[in-house]
Design goal:
28 strands
């Protein structure tokens, strides 16, 4: 251990479990959502985070996921009511100006691409949807992908390219790219032995981390065609391979993982009420066999399942977590 997680503040207000937290791109607003069917927007007043806005009336059931557009002018929310709402700040106040419909039942995750021109959603109906952002706040479905055989838990975009990753109850991760006028799955990542709950690219986009019901974390490395390691690829598509497995840390399901876009630290949230921080051992320089070690642990982080963790996009070491206990906690990770 070479670091410490210090509690900065506990945010209260939600009346049910909180599923997801997400910072806006500048890090000035934190959005949260949960079982009370509301979204709360938290901003700083002095050195304290306070609830600035409550977004209601968008959804009829639990809100499972929120994500900001790259401009910070739009917020997308995914709900168990089978819809996605797009909240628009153009009038100064956030209003739901579009509803994306098509999923048969619970939508589990929504995420904007880095360009802001695409949105991906996934759900219990085993499908992944890709939406094109049109002018005048119109959203058109560009593709419906049925690559998974079970409930799809999470989608996430590559940080620089229009490549999408999804993970599922079927224990796999799928990678997609645009193919002529449609989208297709170009790689299936296998190795987890149970539901894959979440995944996160590092800031380069060359590595991906996943977490699972099997209580492990897997680091995947991207190998481009013609790679010097001799990893076989298919045509012009890269191949992703497991280069590190972290096991023996959490003793319950790992629900979320986030790779910091600032410091390269990895945060995990789990059903054992622990938040753990991992970092790569830089003394081992081999990207094909990297070693990662735990540098901090917060036991009894919330008192119940920790559902989500998200690093601040600008300030190194600032971390938000959310839980079944209905609270959000802001932490500061520091190195000893």
């Amino acid at each position: 251990m070479s670091g410490n997680l210090e509690l900065v503040q506990t945010l209260k207000g939600h009346e049910d479990r909180i599923w997801s937290v997400c910072w806006n791109p500048s890090g000035t607003v934190l959005a949260s959502c949960g079982g009370d069917k509301t979204i709360r927007l938290w901003g700083k007043e002095g050195d304290q985070w306070v609830c600035k806005t409550i977004l209601e009336d968008g959804h009829q059931r639990t809100i499972r996921s929120v994500d900001w557009s790259p401009s910070g002018m739009y917020l997308a929310s995914a709900s168990f009511d089978a819809t996605v709402c797009i909240w628009d700040k153009n009038s100064g106040e956030f209003e739901c100006n579009a509803t994306l419909e098509g999923h048969e039942n619970e939508v589990k995750s929504v995420v904007w691409s880095s360009s802001g021109s695409l949105i991906a959603t996934c759900g219990r109906d085993k499908s992944v949807w890709i939406w094109e952002v049109q002018e005048d706040d119109e959203y058109e479905c560009a593709s419906v992908l049925h690559s998974h055989s079970q409930d799809v838990k999470r989608v996430t975009w590559h940080p620089h390219k229009e490549i999408l990753a999804s993970c599922s109850y079927d224990d796999t991760i799928k990678l997609y790219k645009e193919d002529d006028d449609d989208w297709s799955c170009f790689d299936t990542l296998e190795g987890h032995e149970a539901t894959v709950w979440a995944l996160s690219f590092d800031k380069t986009g060359d590595r991906l981390i996943s977490c699972s019901d099997d209580k492990t974390l897997r680091i995947w490395q991207c190998y481009e065609p013609g790679n010097q390691e001799g990893v076989t690829t298919n045509g012009s598509d890269p191949k992703w391979k497991t280069v590190c497995v972290l096991t023996g840390y959490h003793n319950r399901t790992i629900y979320d993982v986030h790779w910091s876009p600032v410091t390269d630290a990895i945060a995990t949230a789990a059903g054992d009420d622990c938040i753990r921080i991992f970092e790569q051992d830089v003394s081992v320089g081999d990207k094909n066999q990297p070693t990662f070690h735990q540098v901090a642990i917060q036991t009894k982080a919330h008192g119940q399942d920790v559902n989500g963790v998200k690093w601040h996009p600008k300030e190194p070491g600032l971390l938000a977590s959310c839980s079944d206990d209905g609270t959000i906690k802001i932490w500061k990770f520091t190195q000893h």
